Amino acid sequence: xxxxxxxxxxxxxxxxxxxxxxxxxxxxxxxxxxxxxxxxxxxxxxxxxxxxxxxxxxxxxxxxxxxxxxxxxxxxxxxxxxxxxxxxxxxxxxxxxxxxxxxxxxxxxxxxxxxxxxxxxxxxxxxxxxxxxxxxxxxxxxxxxxxxxxxxxxxxxxxxxxxxxxxxxxxxxxxxxxxxxxxxxxxxxxxxxxxxxxxxxxxxxxxxxxxxxxxxxxxxxxxxxxxxxxxxxxxxxxxxxxxxxxxxxxxxxxxxxxxxxxxxxxxxxxxxxxxxxxxxxxxxxxxxxx
Length: 290
Hints:
Blueprint: E1 11-14, E2 18-21, E3 25-26, H1 42-54, E4 59-61, E5 67-68, E6 71-72, H2 73-81, E7 89-94, E8 96-98, E9 104-107, H3 110-124, E10 129-135, H4 148-160, E11 163-169, H5 173-180, E12 187-191, H6 200-209, E13 212-216, H7 228-238, H8 242-253, H9 266-274, H10 282-289
Parallel strand pairs: 3-4, 4-7, 7-10, 10-11, 11-12, 12-13
Antiparallel strand pairs: 1-2, 5-6, 8-9
Helix pairs in contact: 1-2, 1-9, 3-4, 7-8
């Protein structure tokens, strides 16, 4: 599947007005390959970002806490891509806070969110952020905690013109409803992949509302890795890799799905983007559903 660009996976209008190719790029793995791993070569990260844009990626997902040592994802994005193309959409997240060891250990209260947004504006070199997610719950999933007060702070920054669209991350259906009662929600970012698909009901709600669903760990991660054997038969039929099948599955199951596979490897980047051109049959999808 050579010479395939991100455009092969189709488009989606984030927030109704920001058209992006559905196959995007996540910047989490640019500074380091694992949560506690050593820093990666920043020049390689810059090369990966520039190649991603060459391959048609125009939706890049980042966060101020994506960093290891002196290597920070936002800094790499600015160095690689500024001045930014007018069609490039950069999404970021606020909420999690890093401890002294660099590991996420706390989350910001309402009083700290403005400073985090302003820091993202500075490090990315932007006057306005396209999309800002409120990420809640630390590393726990669907804690059920209220997000209204914190989301209202971001809604105020949106009214000031510092943010174009708002999203929420690591949430359940009740929190989506709570956020939408405060301000429009353009995107939800939750843990979801072919072998961790517990969010089907929430995904359906996003489809009904025209809200983008952006899966983090789309190729496995945390305590939910991909099961290569289950993907292997489908991959063999298509002459593809198991990672490509996992990404193609995401694109196939919903028109609001925007995968953001991340990597610090130029070769893996090429492989991931090429998955946008892989079309799975109904039999493939049934087999993957088990």
